Amino acid sequence: MKKVITYGTYDLFHYGHQRLLERAKELGDYLIVGVTADDFDKTRGKINVHQPLIERIESVRSTGLADEIIVEEYEGQKIDDIKRKEVDIFTVGSDWIGEFDYLNEFCDVVYLDRTEGISSSDIRSEHRSIKLGLIGKSRILTKFYNESKHVNGITVDYVCTEDPKEINKLKDEDVVITEDYDVLLEHCDAVYIVSPPIRHYEQIKKALNLGKHVLCEAPIALREDEFDELIELAEKNGLMLFESIKTAYSTAFHRLVLLAKSGRIGDIISIDATCTSLRDINTEALEKEWSSIEKWGPTALLPIFEIFGTEYKNKHASSLILKDNFDIFTKIDFEYESSVASIKVGNSVKSEGELIISGRNGYIYVPAPWWKTDYFELRYENQEENKKYFYQLEGEGIRYELVAFIRSIQMNKNNSYIKTKVSKAIAKTVGDCIYGDVNKLS
Ligand code: CTP
Questions:
Q1: 216 to each of 166, 199, 256, 277, 381, how far by Cα in Å?
Q2: Are 392 and 372 in contact (CB under 8 A)?
Q3: Which domains does the chain have, with CATH numbers?
Q4: N or C: which end of the chain has fewer CB within 10 A?
Q5: In the structure, how many helices (H) and strands (E) does the chain have?
């Protein structure tokens, strides 16, 4: 019996897939189809696959062509499968020519002509491309622009900035640069905002009133009533209002929160998060700068509110103020019913940017810079039980965040990784520091 094996994602199953499987089947007597796992797709850069694994398997099964369906979960698995299942022929479409020649050592490799004119990517972008405008002043602007190229269903034609550094970085790109927010809004369906937080409320409100979806760097607003008003306005106008915290979309961070909640380190007693950076701050133009709590507060608060919730009993904050309530270092301590948490944030103050989640049985350690990590450890008293976890992180999480935002708009269903309750608690905590509910260090 001649055994044939082929692999693919089979997202939004189409005619090209059908023809490939038919011809693969004709190459032998028994066809094995490997369908890629969601995580495996992510690590190889296919990030906006629309259907979950179970649906994609079902599409392949319903063709009746596969004698066996397996899941492809790791790099190098093809060699294992071919040896274990005693496969005679490995086949894929001609878009892969040359890529799998290394398998010739184990079986015959056949590249079948790819069906012209159709692909899952084309079907995915048939949803009209969403025009995203970018506004603000930060290095993140250009990062966002570059990351948007990896996400299908999105185009960035306009950027609104006065930042000479960003203008210079974008000057050779196919993008219109304007200093006029109204012009930007006129030419987009959705907007990404990375301006100093004091301007968020007014900029978000304007966009929502003009029917534009909004993705805004956290915090969305600095006062609870303003936060509620914006959420209500978005809902009333049927628009997405997303808070942007890249870390929330990093797989490592997402998984460590799940592990912590699933009891792997026992009851959690304490969370300590530190985020700092060293920057020159222009004291003459503070309204254009980010204070430490504005820049790092939302990220540092995220693991605390995600794991312990937002109903703390007490909060005590201390800040080192540069001038006019502008802090360059802030420490906040939270007290919950039976646990505690603290953040330390600095902009133009430096410390070790680690995250430690301490439990009754062990702790989770995430080394600096924890907010863009691809790695963390579970550590126990008996070191032999320690475990290390690695996850691929592409584009600091921006890519995944954009995919969640765009898909939410397309499906008209909010897929944000950050709960509204958490966003609101972040806005309140940052706002409290800025409006003076803080012990000022001198
Ligand atoms: N395939 C094909 N003809 C097409 C599309 C895909 O023969 N028009 C083949 C691929 O070469 C591969 C298999 O079908 O052997 C599964 O491909 P997959 O990557 O899942 O599909 P694509 O449509 O190429 O997906 P994408 O656009 O996301 O790359």
A1: 18, 11, 25, 21, 42
A2: no
A3: 3-122 (3.40.50.620), 128-246 (3.40.50.720), 247-441 (3.30.360.10)
A4: C
A5: 14, 21
CA nearest ligand 1 atom 24, residue: 119
Spatial distance between the Cα atoms of 215 and 134, rounded to a whole number of angstroms: 10
pLDDT interval class at 39 (50, 70, 90): confident
Atom of ligand 1 at shortest range from CA of 20: 7
Q: How far is the centre of ligand 1, averaged over its atoms, from the C-alpha of 32 (Å)? A: 16
pLDDT at 395: 79
CA distance 32 to 20: 13
The predicted-structure confidence for 244-302, as pLDDT tens digits, reads as follows 999 999 989 999 999 999 999 999 999 999 999 998 888 888 888 899 999 999 999 99
Taking the CA of residue 93 as reference, the ligand 1 atom at the shortest distance is 11
Indicate which residue's Cα is closest to atom 9 of ligand 1: 93
Q: Comparing 48 with 242, which gets the higher pLDDT?
A: 242
- Give every strand in the sheet of 439-441, ordered side by side: 387-390, 375-380, 362-366, 355-359, 268-277, 340-347, 326-335, 314-323, 439-441
Q: Say how many Å lie between the CA of residue 65 and the centre of ligand 1.
A: 16
What is the C-alpha to C-alpha distance for residues 254 and 417, in angstroms, rounded to an integer?
9
Task: Examine the pLDDT at 363 and tell me if it is beyond 90.
Answer: yes
